[in-house]
Amino acid sequence: MRQQYDTSAPPAAFSVADAFMLRTALDALGGVRGLDTLDVACGHGSTARLLASGGARRTVGVDSCPERIRRARAHETGETGEAGAVEYHVADAAGMPQLGPFDLATAVYLFNQAHDRVALHAMFRAVRANLRPGARLLAIVPNPGAFPHVDWSPYGIRIVERTPGGDAPLLRARLETDPPVAFECREWAHADFAEAAVDAGFATVAWQPTRTPPACEIRDEPYWARYRSAPVSSLMNCVA
User: Fold this and answer.
1) pLDDT value at position 6?
2) What is the enclosing helix (H) or strand (E) of 156?
3) Is residue 170 part of a domain?
4) End-to-end Cα distance, the chain
5) Is the peptide bond preceding residue 222 cis, with omega within 30 degrees of 0?
6) Domain that holds residue 58
7) I need a surface site. Which of 88, 158, 195, 206 has the fewest CB within 10 A?
8) Who's near 108: CB < 8 A, 6+ residues apart?
9) Residue 53 to residues 32, 58, 86: CA-CA distances in angstroms?
């Protein structure tokens, strides 16, 4: 569900809303200046760069795809060839090595990639093992139960098929880009995420209300009001 298409294209509405929701949560915590930060499933590095630009003492990005890490590093070095502010590692989230400890971790559409309950719990345990006591995990996760009742295509994503089975239903979907990008993920309930977090050792789990950016010429307030009535994602806030 991460945006794996051409990053020069304008971001989809759901991605814009996610970024705003995450920035708002970070601001409410007082920012990241002086913190050691970790971004899991970092993709091309946009969230990791956000953390680094906010004054984090150390920022580490982790992703299982070598090509996404290559592109993230290329964005960091740019034309100068100098090392960037983010340290990147190729690693599977469920088997992530000890890279910390960190004061804050972020994860955007990571946990819905878990193919079964064992993998889901392993992901949360790997993140928790890299956090200091009292550290925080901010995770953006998709909301379950939308298909076939809600059409998310105006916001940049379409659920094509839902197949029950396994520990969670399989969703086949696509990003409404040009060309479209197909992907699959599991439709975990929020209770499943919370259970895995508590099992991993997080002391508290909370869910923050969906927040959207201010209206603009492209997306007015009625547009965002419709989005908030059935949002793509929620923000999970866990304290170690």
Assistant:
1) 42
2) none
3) no
4) 26
5) no
6) 32-144+199-239
7) 206
8) 2, 18, 22, 39, 41, 43, 47, 139, 140
9) 9, 11, 10
Q: Residues 24-62: pLDDT tens digits?
A: 999 999 999 999 999 999 999 999 999 999 999 999 999
Q: How far is CA 64 from the centre of its chain?
A: 14
Rounded Cα gap, residues 40 and 2, in angstroms: 12
Token digits of residue 209: 């209300």
Burial 9-35 (b: 16+ CB within 10 A, else e): eeebbbbbbbbbbbbebbeeeeebeeb
Task: State the Cα–Cα distance between residues 212 and 21, nearest whole angstrom.
Answer: 7
Domain containing residue 37: CATH number:
3.40.50.150
Coil vs helix vs strand at 119:
helix
Nearest residue to 87 (alpha-carbon basis) of 39, 35, 19: 39
Strands 36-40 and 102-108: parallel
Q: Is residue 134 part of a domain?
A: yes
Residue 61: inside a domain: yes
- Structure tokens given for 164: 């029950």
Q: What's the number of domains the chain is made of?
A: 1
pLDDT digits (tens, 9 = 90+) for 120-174: 999 999 999 999 999 999 999 999 999 999 999 999 999 999 999 999 999 999 9
Q: Quick check: is 84 in a domain?
A: yes
pLDDT in tens, 63-75: 999 999 999 999 8
Q: What is the pTM of this model?
A: 0.93
